[in-house]
Amino acid sequence: MRIAGVAVLLAGVGLIATAPPASAGCLYGGPVISKCDGPVQPDGTWQRCIGVAQWVPSGLSTHLVPVKHCGVMGPNQQSLDFVFADPPTHIDG
C-alpha cells in the first residue's frame, strides 16, 4: 500500500515537471498600474490587460479606482493606443 502511494505521488510530480510553462508576464509602473500578457495562442496572438487609475466621484469627494482594459495583441493586430501596445512583443514572465 505504501509503494502504491509513492508511485502515485511520483507520477503526479512527473506530470507537473513536464507541463509547458504558461508564458505569461507582467510589467508594473510607468504610465499604467500594470500591464500583463496572457499565454500565446496557436495563431500567435495573446491577450494584454492593463490596469489604470480612474477618478470616481464619491459624495463631496473623489477617489481613484483601478480599472482593467484588455485587448488582443500579436501578428496583424494593431492598436492606436501607444501605452497599450508598448512593448509590441509578448511580455514573458
Can you give the mean pLDDT? 77
> Considering DSSP H and I runs of 4 or more, what fraction of the residues is helical?
10-25%
The backbone outline, from C-alpha atoms, is elongated
Structural class, from helix and strand content? alpha+beta
Number of helices: 2
Strand content: 35-45%
Largest sheet: 4 strands, antiparallel
Query: What is the count of structural domains?
Result: 1
* Poorly predicted runs: 4-23
Strand order in the largest sheet: 1-2-3-4
Structure description:
Strand 1 (about 25-30) and strand 2 (about 35) form a beta hairpin. The longest helix has 17 residues, at about 1-20. With about 90 residues, the protein is an alpha+beta fold. A 4-stranded antiparallel sheet has the order 1-2-3-4, with no helix packed on it. The protein is about 25% helix and about 35% strand. It has one domain (about 20-93).
Quick summary of this structure?
By secondary structure, the protein is α+β, with helices and mostly antiparallel strands. The chain is built from 2 helices and 4 strands. 23% of the residues lie in helices and 37% in strands.
